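Please, structure for the following, as tokens.
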Amino acid sequence: MWNDIKYLIAYVSPVTAALGLYLGGIWSPGAVYVGFIIIPVLELVLPARTDNVPIGEETQRNTMKYFDWLLYLHLPMIYALMVYFIYRIGFTALTSWEIIGMTMNMGVILGSYGINVAHELGHRTDNVSAWIARLLLVPSLYTHFTLEHNYGHHRHVATYDDPATARTGESVYAFWRRSVTGSFRNAWRLERERLRKEGKAFIGFSNQLIWGVALQIAYLIAIAMWAGSTALVASLVAAVIGFLLLETVNYIEHYGLVRKKLLSGHYETVEAMHSWNSNHELGRIFLYELTRHADHHYRTSRHYQILRHLDGAPQLPTGYPGSMLLSLVPPLWRKTVHGRIKVKMPA
């Protein structure tokens, strides 16, 4: 029973975000307090769990609609929060601190619940999941993510061909620049190749990235027309915070890990050793098992509720939220993590 209901705890962050928007003042950052203070502190004292769902239960658990609906509900929830956020910024009297706090609040929600849930749904093949994933990425202005992640990152992970794999010694700030720009370029290249193979024009209705950009532009125009320039700027900043949170997760997920190049010119198969993992349960719950990342790369079709701990996966010193904070201080990150890397990717 606990393994079914525990993911409801993830809704604490959106609820806290709503309260932050409503109460204002010192509570304005809302979800920031949960994600980057409460969870990291608790994960320092709570034990990690390495147990997996029994193999005999995986098929039934994988088909339970309950776990799908936990994800689907993030679409109306995030758009409702964005509407309320834009209203608060555009139409109510707020202090500078409240505007900054609320913008950080929404940025955390867009990154940890918008992009992260879109990541999970973007690996599924049904149209409902695909469209929800696309719409979840619009407020973060990252609609290219699913295409590049699925067909670029998963193919080239832990190699120099992957902009979303951080190199040994590379700071998170240098990685942000390389990954954000490189992933965007790769997405357009991948879409061009897809359309060429299908015999379709690059400029046209079949181009998924053009549709994504159009949705993002329409979204920003709607904000500006409804709530004005301050709300537009705050929404843009929240989007940047959201996708930089994603890129920080990318940074810690494969930092310094490298696949060997074989005599054939191909890289070795992706193994558990090529993804950083964490079994700290709070982070697992709040991020829908993203922290069991090695198993995700082993089989991308495996839904979050049955992702497994793999013994060969390197373990981060703390959960993903705490590790993300560590990465913001490069000397501390290197001191903490470098000793855990077996085969390093040079800078």
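The chain is about 60% helix and 0% strand. The chain has a mean pLDDT of 95.
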